Amino acid sequence: MALRNAPFWLLVLLAVALRDSCDGASSHSMKYFFTSISEPSQGQPHFVEMGFVDSQVFVHYDSHSRRMKPRVSWMEKVGKGDPQYWDSQTQSARASEETFRGNLEILRSRYNQSEGLHTWQLMYGCEFQRERSKGRFWQYGYDGRTYITFDKEILTWVAPDPQAQITQRKWDAITAMNRRYKAYLEEECIEWLEKYLSYGNETLLRTEPPVVMMSSRTEVEDGMETHVCRVHGFYPREIDASWTRDGEVWLQDTFHGFLTPNADGTYHYWISIRVDPKERGRYRCRVEHDGLQDPLDLELKEPTDSKSNLWLIIGFVVAAQVVVGVIAGIVVFIINRPQEDYNAVPRRNQAI
C-alpha cells in the first residue's frame, strides 16, 4: 500500500535500482524518463525530460530552459555529425511538453479530481547483457500509480482501471503504432544503446577495480560483533559481494546496502554481518568484479577502536545515499532520441 501511494518518480527510481542489479555479468542500459507536474513547487519546472545510459545522465530538457542539452561531453559528437540535432530535439521536446500538459488536464477531468498537484509520467528503455537483450519496457504513470503499460508480446496496452481503459481502447485501435513500439523496443533501442556506448566508450566501457575496506565494532548489549565490508570506486556497476562462512555463501544475520553512484561515475556498495566473536575466523567478505583478476577474500579482524571507524563508514554511506535521495527528489525526468532516428521512435506525446 505504501508503494502504491508513493510518488511515481519514486517508483521510477525504484525501478531503475531494481533493474540495475549489482549482481551478475556486465550489462548496459538506456532509459528515458518524462514527467509533467500540474502545480510544481516554487522554482521547479513543470516538465522535465532526462535520459540515462547505464546510470549516467546524457541529455536533459526542462520547461525553464526549453532547450535539449547534453549532460556528458561525448554527446557533443552527435551534434557535430548533425548540426541541426539539438534544435530538432528541442522542438520535439517542446511538443511533448504541451501534450503532457494537456494529458494532465484530461486525466484530472476523467478521474473527477479538483485542481492540485498531479503528475503524468512516462518511462521506457532497454538493456542488454553479454549481447543478449532484456529488460525492455514502456510504461505511463499517473499520480503515483501505473496508468498503462505496453505488452510487446501481444501488441496491446494493459490498463489497470476503467479510466485507463479508455486510453487502452484508443491506442490499441492504432495497430501499426503498436507494431512500431515492439520494433523499437526489440531492435532500435538496442542499436542506439550500442551507438551511445561507442560515443562514450572511454567512460562507459572502462573498468575500475573495487577498493575494499573492512571495519567492525563490538555490540555493548550482547557482545556480538558487527562487521562492515565496504566496496568503493568500481566500474561497471555489476559486482558480487557476499559473506562466506567456511567457504560457503552465508546469508544469515547479514544486511545489504544499496548500490549507489559516486560523483566520478564509479559505484560503491556495502554489506554487514553480525557474528559471535568466537566464530570470527570462519567468515570472509568475498568480492568478485570484472576489474579483478581473482576474487578477493578478506578475513574479519578483531575490533580495534571499532566504534568510531564503523560508524564513520556507515555515516559516509548513509550520507551518500541521502544525497542520492535528494537528487532522486529532483529527478522528475525524461528524454528524446537523436533526431536522425526520431521518426523511428514511437510517439511519446500521444494524447490519451
Would you mind describing this structure in some detail?
The protein is an alpha+beta fold. It is 31% helix and 31% strand. The protein contains 7 helices and 17 strands. The protein has helices spanning 8-19, 76-81, 85-110, 162-172, 175-199, 201-204, 306-330; strands spanning 27-37, 47-53, 56-62, 69-70, 119-129, 132-142, 145-151, 156-158, 211-218, 225-234, 240-245, 248-249, 254-256, 260-261, 267-275, 283-288, 296-299. An 8-stranded antiparallel beta sheet has the order 4-3-2-1-5-6-7-8, sandwiched between helices. The longest helix is centred in the first third of the chain and has 26 residues, at 85-110. The radius of gyration is 23 Å and the shape is elongated. The two termini are 27 Å apart. Mean pLDDT is 83; it is low at 1-21 and 306-343.
How far do the termini sit from each other? 27 Å
> Widest sheet: strand order?
4-3-2-1-5-6-7-8
Taken as a percent bin, the fraction of beta residues is: 25-35%
Rounded to the nearest angstrom, the radius of gyration is 23 Å
The secondary-structure class comes to alpha+beta
- Averaging pLDDT over every residue, what do you get? 83
| Biggest sheet overview | 8 strands, antiparallel
The unreliable regions are: 1-21, 306-343
- Number of beta strands: 17
Please give the share of residues in helix.
25-40%
H and E order: HEEEEHHEEEEHHHEEEEEEEEEH
- The count of helical stretches stands at 7
- The shape, in one word, is elongated
